[in-house]
Amino acid sequence: AQTVTQSQPEMSVQEAETVTLSCTYDTSESDYYLFWYKQPPSRQMILVIRQEAYKQQNATENRFSVNFQKAAKSFSLKISDSQLGDAAMYFCAYSSGNTGKLIFGQGTTLQVKP
Amino acid sequence: AAGVIQSPRHLIKEKRETATLKCYPIPRHDTVYWYQQGPGQDPQFLISFYEKMQSDKGSIPDRFSAQQFSDYHSELNMSSLELGDSALYFCASSLALSGRPGELFFGEGSRLTVL
Question: Is the pLDDT of residue B1 over 70?
């Protein structure tokens, strides 16, 4: 069975600085996708960034980028120029193939200090 | 842009009662997913539907059932409610042939409290 692990329950960062959230996963599959979702206090899950396992190039979305290390089964999220609106719970998630059956990690609460 | 609509946003029920949650996916999305997020927990996949047929099943209790209707909206029916069913229930939708597999759009969730 696939598992996703986020070992940092809480992280904090100063506004305008950079922070990295860690995620590791375990799978024996070759076709899968990895995601970072943001859940602000409003509760709605919002997709931050998405990575296809077959792509070696790390995904980037504006201030958000990932470091995808397939052999190490690591998928970290880097947030540059952190903003107050980035404060939220961040979930790392895995899906097999093209299903929407996401397996989530435990989440990391990010605090952004002004 | 239209988003996933869930109703009700909040629901309070007594033990052993029945609850129904509704989900209206983004227009033209053909796949609906249900997730349950307990207090302080990560979301757990319950069930999904593609083109009105059940496509996958996760850790959904036998007391729960769901379906997707001809207009693509979905309903999650929960019977014989237990205290442990208190959670945030998310619905998400996607378009199977979007070219972006696994990308889900979530609703704001329905918070069920069982007393």
Answer: no
